[in-house]
Amino acid sequence: MSDQTIDLPELPFPLRAYGPEGAWRYADGALTGRAGARQDRFVPPSGASLEPASDAPRLLGAPDGDFQLIARVRVGFAAAFDAGVLALEADAQHWAKLCLELSPERPTICTVVTRGHSDDANSFVVDGDSYWLRISRTGRAFAFHASPDGERWTFVRVFTLGTPEQAVAARVGFLAQSPTGEGCAVTYDRIVFRPEGLADARDGS
């Protein structure tokens, strides 16, 4: 595991690298990272093991209180299930992903919530290789949203994760994956952090 840490000017907390080497770099307002071949973070629901089948590079930090983390995600799609991800982790058995993913032939907004084993759900297909993603926390509830322009948001999912204490201490950040391919480069820009939750997760704001 990498011991790399990165301070982004947009975020009031440091980010630490977890998992395989992700070649994380920040310059000119953009964070870049790369997943290696066959790297993913997923615990198959049909399996007995509670360990991920593989692991993926991620860059995570722990904000205080309610928040919104927003980024425009651009993915160098090359193989099925390549994805750029906003990630959330409460502990080793409780974590979630909001993905812009090639699933398997068209770019799609997908989510995974893992409570021991992972679930997996496709939300909607999008055009192109970039889209805006948002993770928010209000109390112990997390919400996933996606947007073509960073202005009008489509509700994707609301859930909680782990115990109440774990939910309010969860780490949030960025992940790159390439489960079936030879690697995948991801760029995150227009990064915004807001130290507040959402008044209404379903009103498009």
From TrEMBL:
Pfam families associated with the record: DUF1349
Database matches in InterPro entries: ConA-like_dom_sf, DUF1349
PANTHER family documented for this protein: REGULATION OF ENOLASE PROTEIN 1
Protein name: Regulation of enolase 1
